[in-house]
Design goal:
The protein is 32% helix and 14% strand. The chain is an alpha/beta fold and 328 residues long. The protein has one domain: Phosphatidylinositol (PI) phosphodiesterase (TIM Barrel), CATH 3.20.20.190. Strand 9, helix 8 and strand 10 form a beta-alpha-beta unit.
Length: 328
C-alpha cells in the first residue's frame, strides 16, 4: 500500500489544468473500481485511496443481494474477489447469465448480512495479495456516504440489469433511491450512470437528472438486451446519434478509439471515456516502453474526455505533466 505521506506529496504535485473555460476542460480521471491497481477492487479502502490520490470520480460496479441491497462487485459471481467459497462451500450454483453458463457463488443468493461476513481479495494473480482477507464488501449506500465526505464524483455501473430484473431484483429502483437519499439525483451533481445495456439507460433517462453513459463492447458483440444491434453498429454515425438521444457519453474499449471515432462521437454531442488503463506489465502494451504516461498521452491527444484507470495516480501524473500540454 502507498504510504500516506507519499500520497500527500503526489496530490500536492498534481495541479489542475491551467487553461480555463469549458472548451479546455481536463480529461477526467475515473478510478476504475477504486485504486484497484493498489488494493483489492471495490472496497472502501480502494475507493478511499483513489480519493486521496486526487481522482475525479470513483467507479463502483453494482450488483444486488438476495434482500435487494446494492453492493459493489464487478460480477455477481463473487468467488474471484471474496472468500465466499471457503465460508459457504455448500452454496455453489450454476446459472445462465446473458447466455453464458456460470458456476459459482452469486450475490443474489446471499443476504446482505451474509455478504458482510465475506472479505475481499485481489482478483488478479499478477498483483499483490498482501491485503487479501482484510476488507468488507461495501454497499452502494456506504460508498455514497464516503463520496459525501469528499469532493469526489461517483460513476456507478449497473451490471446485468435485464438478468436481475427477470429475477424480480431490478437494479434501477434502489439505484434511484440511493441517489435521491444522498441528494445526488440532481442536475450538476458529480454523477454518471453507465451500462452495457441499452433499455435500462433509456428507462433511466426520465428518472435521473444526472448524465448517462452507454458502455460499448467489442464490435461484433451485442448488448444483452438487443436482439440484432451490435456494438459495432452503435459506433457509426447513426448509432452514435441514436445513443445521444438518451445518453451524454460513451465508454468504449481503448481499441475502438481512433481520431475518426472521437470526431463522430463529439459531433453527436457525446463525451468519450475509454476503458481500461492499467500500468502493470501484463496489461501495458510494449509499444509504450513501460511508461504508462505514454499511453495516456496518446489518448489525451486523441481528444478523449476521461479515462478509466486502475492506477489513478499514474493517470493524474500524466495529466499534470507533458501530455496534457501536448494534447492541447
Amino acid at each position: 500500500m502507498i504510504p500516506r505521506l507519499a500520497i500527500a506529496a503526489l496530490v500536492g504535485a498534481l495541479s489542475s489544468c491551467a487553461i480555463p473555460g469549458p472548451a479546455d476542460e481536463c480529461p477526467l480521471v475515473i478510478a476504475h473500481r477504486g485504486a484497484s491497481g493498489h488494493l483489492p477492487e471495490h472496497t472502501i479502502e480502494a475507493y478511499r485511496l483513489a480519493i486521496e490520490m486526487g481522482a475525479d470520480y470513483i467507479e463502483p460496479d453494482l450488483v444486488i443481494s438476495k434482500d435487494g441491497v446494492l453492493i459493489a462487485r464487478h460480477e455477481n459471481e463473487m468467488s474471484e474477489t471474496t472468500d465466499v467459497a471457503a465460508k459457504f462451500p455448500d452454496r455453489k450454483a450454476r446459472k445462465t447469465i446473458d447466455g453464458r453458463t456460470v458456476e459459482g457463488w452469486f450475490s443474489e443468493d446471499f443476504t446482505l448480512a451474509e455478504i458482510k461476513t465475506l472479505r475481499a481479495r485481489e482478483r488478479l494473480s499478477s498483483r499483490s495479495h498482501a491485503n487479501d482477507g482484510k476488507y468488507e464488501v461495501p454497499t452502494f449506500t456506504e460508498i455514497l456516504a464516503l463520496v459525501g465526505r469528499h469532493d469526489i464524483g461517483v460513476y456507478p455501473e449497473t451490471k446485468y440489469p435485464s438478468y436481475f430484473r427477470a429475477l424480480g431484483l431490478p437494479l434501477e429502483p434502489p439505484l434511484i433511491a440511493a441517489l435521491d437519499a444522498a441528494s445526488l439525483n440532481r442536475s450538476g451533481a458529480k454523477v454518471f450512470v453507465q451500462s452495457f445495456e441499452v433499455s435500462n439507460l433509456q428507462s433511466l433517462k426520465n428518472r435521473l437528472k444526472v448524465p448517462l453513459v452507454q458502455l460499448l463492447g467489442d464490435p461484433d458483440e451485442r448488448p444483452s438486451d438487443q436482439a440484432v444491434m451490435t456494438y459495432g453498429d452503435m459506433t457509426g454515425e447513426q448509432g452514435l446519434q441514436d445513443i445521444a438521444r438518451y445518453a451524454a457519453g460513451v465508454g468504449p474499449p481503448k481499441a475502438a478509439v481512433s481520431s475518426e471515432f472521437v470526431a463522430r462521437a463529439h459531433a453527436a454531442g457525446l463525451k468519450i471515456h475509454p476503458y481500461t488503463f492499467r500500468s502493470d506489465p501484463p496489461f501495458l502494451a510494449p509499444v509504450y516502453g513501460g511508461d504508462p504516461a505514454e499511453e495516456y498521452c496518446k489518448f489525451f491527444a486523441l481528444g478523449v474526455d476521461g479515462v478509466f484507470s486502475d492506477f489513478p495516480d499514474d493517470a493524474l501524473k500524466a495529466r499534470a505533466s507533458r501530455c496534457w500540454s501536448q494534447a492541447k
